Amino acid sequence: MKIYIGSDHAGVDLKELVKQHFANQFEFVDAGTFTNESVDYPDFAHQVAENVLKDEQGRGILICGTGNGMAITANKHAGIRAALCWSPEIAALAKQHNNANIIVLPARFISPQLAMDTLDAYFKAEFEGGRHQRRIDKINL
After folding, report:
1. What is the pLDDT of residues 14-26, one digit of tens each?
2. What's the whole-model pTM score?
């Protein structure tokens, strides 16, 4: 599976740890940023969202300080379901119930180990369909 990943300056260190941790499981396409210098998070959220929309099998990971800016921006794209997750339970439910195709991590509020556990739960979870698909179908206007 191809993972499209991006971060702002607050998430760049965690992004690199994520790529190292999952290097044997996924192919990463890194949208940046690549330094701790201040950048505008929407630039990276839009790029990851557009790539996920082009690749039906692909998934995305976005990381910024709180995760809020990345999630808000990515969710502006019809067909993107970006879920802000800070625990394995929330991440699993984001996939099971919402079929989230992008997971967003809050770098300033999650430890590296908890981030890896959260991503593990997300990637192991399966969309349950059924009543959840009916609800997803009502998201886009």
Report:
1. 999 999 999 999 9
2. 0.96
